[in-house]
Amino acid sequence: MNIKEKDIKIWSAIGPRATLGMAALSLANEVKNLIVLTCDVSTSAGLDRFRKNYPEKYIDLGIAEQNLIGVAAGLASEGFNVVTTTFAPFQTMRCCEQIKVNLGYMKQKVCMVGIASGLVLGQLGYTHCSIEEIGALRSIPGITIVSPADSLETVKALESAINFDKPIYIRLTGGANNPMVYKKDYDFKIGKAITLKEGKDITIFCSGAIVFECLKAADLLDKKNISTCVVNMHTIKPLDKLALEKSLDKKMIVTVEEHNIIGGLGSAISECKSTYSKSPKQLSLGVKDTYGKCGDYKYMLNKHGLVAEKIVNDVISNLEI
Amino acid sequence: MPEQKKIIEKIDKFAVNSRKNILDMALAAGASSSHFGGALSIVDIISTLYVSQMNISKKDPCSKSRDRFILSKGHGCLAYYAALCEIGHLNKNELKSFEKNESDLLGHPVLNKKLGIDFSTGSLGMGLSLGIGVAISFKKKKLKNAVYVVLGDGECNEGSVWEAAMAASNFKLDNLQIIIDNNGYQQTGLNKEIMNTYSLTEKWKSFGWHTSEVDGHNTKKLFNYFEKNKNIKKPKALIAKTIKGKGFSFSENNNDWHHTVLTKNLYEKAMLEISKR
User: Fold this and answer.
1) Which residues from A are below 8 Å from B127, CB to CB?
2) Contact B136/A59, CB-based, under 8 Å?
3) CA distance B250 to A98
4) Angle value at C-alpha B261, between B255 and B265, nearest 5 degrees
């Protein structure tokens, strides 16, 4: 896909959900066997134009996610390149066993896109937030999990996922006016983490829309003489072990995610880190295994300590100098 | 119609051999038990499909023109493997590996294109959704292949069955047929004691399916049903009235045979009964 800087700005303004629809529209011409399945969320997933332009490549299964995954697997087994999309909790937890059997056990190649994951729908309550699904999906053998940092990475991830040969879940976080981590096109490879900023004292591993906040936190930490490296671990499974190894000599490893601290990126890093005889302490930041009061996205991030200032404070109070 | 008579004879022979295959597998399973009753209730249905309805290639289990068979009630796999053996995708020795370590023939079917198994099933309520995906694929590719899905009546307790039921008629999938093995029992008792589904026929009809009821062991009636429904422009549901454990005096309508051990004595008794038919 040919990506222009103008597109990147537009995608950032409209946010990852609408970007998904635009990306699917661009890919429909290139990928002849592409088919997009939704559960009555065409508008939410930015797929209205896709639906109008490519009705033959679009199937709405109504509000029935278990059937969504089964139908997707049936189409995949007959050679279609299937993308399914609906709100993250329904795309994953609601049909978790269908994902296990059809995508995990049977290895049917389907690309699932969970929209509005994390905390962005805080005003709608925790039914619509998604802070558990990485943990659930990570425990299913064979499912790749990608969590893009911004709208451009959403496009890159979707394009890569469509050309990928294994079942995959793309987790979309953040809202409209999604801050840009990437201002121009770059190399994206599933499973290969990207170091966004070098630093010698600590490394922050992060993924999703929270990456931008981590970059802000790193700048603040630098000013406090804590030289901070930031790694965009966009692929949570399989984990980029080499990227982790590079940070084993740091004073501390920090993981930041818009997910429960159990089961997500922090757990993945911790599991991997524990296999090395010498490794630094880890600080896992995220939702602290709790549901709570809800509010807008800013409120939710603040409440869970997922803003630059709070990340900085947590790092300082945990760093043994 | 001598032609039809010949086909029915062929189906019945296929069914007898399938039941023998089932006995062999159940015996080979030994103490690990097998889902015996729910396999025997679908033997005549599967025999009718494989002998007279489904377009399959005995030489090539992956032939592009093949119709697709999905055993949504995966625990009935003894009947499936028995049929795959009769058409030559499996041999008798392979049958005896049933549920043995590292066997391809698990207690629930596992995708294995070379053996003619297109999907892994066993977790109930998932097969029809797969069938819908396949049926839509055939429509989109303008192919004439048909899709047959066998479900259990107990399986219809699963909500996902009804998500799929709704979708099949919505998408007007006239290339999709289901056969419900209505033996009246589920794992721990009668349907009406565990979860009364009342009339499955009425339910499927109300979901927009062409529905029929046929004796699921009368191969002539089964054959005629399939022959006559070919031009109906709807997804088709057959509520097949069956007997759990059909074929052997000790297992018929005896729910102890849902999942149990076939002893050598009973194996011999069963073989004797089948040879007297």
Assistant:
1) 70
2) yes
3) 37
4) 105
The residue written with tokens 């009769």 in the block is: B86
| Partner-chain contact A70 B133, CB within 8 Å | yes
Taking residue A190's Cβ as centre, other Cβ atoms within 10 Å add up to 20
- A70–B126 CB contact, under 8 Å: yes
User: Is the minimum CB–CB distance between A79 and chain B shorter than 8 Å?
Assistant: yes
DSSP for residue A99: I
Residues of B in contact with A64 (CB under 8 A): 163, 166-167
CA distance B170 to B163: 11
* Model confidence, pTM: 0.97
Q: What is the mean pLDDT of each run of 10 residues along chain B (277 residues)?
A: 92 98 96 94 98 97 97 98 98 95 96 97 98 98 98 98 98 98 96 96 98 98 97 97 97 94 96 89
CATH number of the domain at A5-171, out of 3.30.1360.20, 3.40.50.970, 3.10.129.10, 3.40.50.2000? 3.40.50.970
CA atoms within 13 A on the CB side of A266: 21
Peptide bond into A238 cis (omega under 30): yes
Contact present, A225 and A219 (Cβ < 8 Å): no
| H-helix segments, A54-95 | 65-77, 88-92
Between 3.40.630.10, 3.40.50.970, 3.90.700.10, 3.30.390.30, what CATH number should domain B2-275 receive? Answer: 3.40.50.970
ipTM of the complex: 0.96
